[in-house]
TrEMBL record:
Keywords for this protein: Heme, Iron, Metal-binding
Pfam assignment, any one: Cyt-b5
Single GO cellular component term: cytoplasm
Compositionally biased residues, Pro residues: 303-315
Basic and acidic residues bias locations: 53-89, 126-139
Transmembrane segments: none
Low complexity: bias regions: 108-122, 271-302
An annotated Gene Ontology molecular function: heme binding
Region (Disordered): 44-348
Protein name: Cytochrome b5 heme-binding domain-containing protein
Species of origin: Sodiomyces alkalinus (strain CBS 110278 / VKM F-3762 / F11) (Alkaliphilic filamentous fungus)
Segments forming domain Cytochrome b5 heme-binding: 350-428
Amino acid sequence: MGYVGVSLIVASVVWVLVAPPPWIHPYLPFFLLPARRHSHALLLTSKPSSPPRDNDTQNSDDKPEARNGGEHVTSKEPERPRIQVEEARSNLAGPPLVDLAPAPAPAPTRTSSPTSSPTSSPDPAPARDAKAAQDRDRAAMPPPPPVIQTPASVPTLQSPPQLAEPEEEQTTPKVSATAHDASSVPSFSLSDESAPAQPAEPSIRTPSASSMMPPPPLPTKPSNASASRPSFPMLGSPQVARPPGAAPPRLHKIPSATPSTLFPRPDSQQIARGPAPNRIPAAAATATAAAARARARAGPSSLAPPPTHNQPPQKPSRKVLLPPGHSPLDWARISGPTADLRNLPPDTPYLKVTPSMLKRHSGRRGTDAWSAFAGRVYNITPYADYHPGGRGELLRCAGKDGTRLFGEVHPWVNYETMLSACLVGVLVPEEEGSRESEMDAMD
Ligand code: HEM
């Protein structure tokens, strides 16, 4: 349809250009307007130098508006007035106030009464003087612009809507082309059926969407039952293949489908390959979980996560159950910075403890248990009942250096802070202690 419409348009244009019909001659100036526009503008500006005419000589003196109106010109040349009106309209961007139909009109004369014009000014004499001055100024200026107002002495040029006759009002191609003789003018409509059917249409018919667009394809003829229902059956669906008038299939009748419509087909290789990996039977899933547990019991594998400090210790805990009031917090409370748990006189300075001295404080025979850790000697007797590992474990290092045992069990423990209130002195060699004892004896 689109090709047919374009072909009709092209054929019409070629026909008009090659063999223009007689009725189109009056409209040719409109098509040739752009070409003749400049030449006609020159004609208007050179009006005073044009050959004199009977009425033009009178109007060219003090009636430039009448001259520009072109009534005397239009009466002799049917094409020029339309050009003038078109030019005036394009320059002034407004409706033309002058109907330049070839109808004979009385020539404007100086003796015409100004009051005869329905739109004449109340005081024409000063207006004529002013317009005469304007005429002189306009003659001095190169291109005189077209004047909208008509002189008061030209009553026939006033009120174009009232004076315009239907058959003479062909000032624009838009109105004259299709308004009055649409039957003889080729229509722009692409629809071959609608154009001749409505010859009396007063306005230009815009091509309808149905004439521009092809109709949608109809897959099947809609039946009476499906036509009223706005359904969109898919190709191959039973609804499309259903004969007219038949009842629509119901969804619960799926078993009626043949094996060829099932997906996947029973003999398909997809079924032969077996179910998908994530759809293994329950028995197989149980076996897989059991195998994973067995691998976990067997020991760390390459896939096992690396060991971290959060893992439980390999050795069983040897912590003992302490009696109430012997928790680490209870020890922290009684062993503050100002506490003294050495079991020595209050002003006793830190002692130089020799190995023999240390050995005599083993916790036996009513003595306190002293122990050395990293060169410092502590009285561990007050802490023995607060030791998480038990009293017996702690007293294994009583009367001797317990640095090695301490490091073997819990090197991370901060014993210096925990036993600050139990610090007795420093461990010194046996010789140094014997010399000091000799000096004390001399004193
Ligand atoms: C005087 C210095 C010592 C202090 C301050 C001390 C302190 C502690 C503390 C705080 C804990 C608890 C550790 C934890 O919870 O992880 C502990 C546990 C223990 N300590 Fe000591 N300790 C001392 C000396 C010793 C010595 C010399 C021995 C051994 C001969 C020992 C054997 C143990 C044992 C076996 C545990 C239990 C470890 C466990 O399984 O959690 N401690 N000690």
